[in-house]
Please model this.
Amino acid sequence: MKSSAETATPSDEGPATAGDPADAVPPQAAPDLGFDLDAFLPYRLVRLADAVSAEIAALYGARFGLTIAEWRVLAHLSQEPAVGVREIHARVALDKPKITRAAQRLAAAGLVTKAPGSDRRLISLTLTPAGHALMAELVPLALAAEAEALDALTPDEAATFRGLVEKLFAARA
Model:
């Protein structure tokens, strides 16, 4: 003869536990919203930019011990004689604290100098001779990595791609 515990039905046992597979609710299909994340342009552009940045970061990270933030600060400073954190923030898509930390590490390594800007609250950054020398080594690596990323395209496709990217930027300016 079975005990009452052996013959009990789920409704007789009280509340089900979370781990009871018999009570699991089957997943429901997501409603069709007419949205494909993998085809969504902002998502695809960010994924592409992240992938290319990661490839380049692997090169300068392994060889020079730089982070993406440090590379972006150095790259921006190589284009301007003296720049503040605000200007770098506006151009390189990093938050100000990351830029500030990167600048501190670069200054400690002797690659940039920090000086008071026109407003005492602002700091102006410049590349040191060692920073310029490092950029002279980094730029060929970065350009080679960029060329490798574009190798999937024909020269005409690469030119078209660059033109389209510029057109999209101009439309948002």
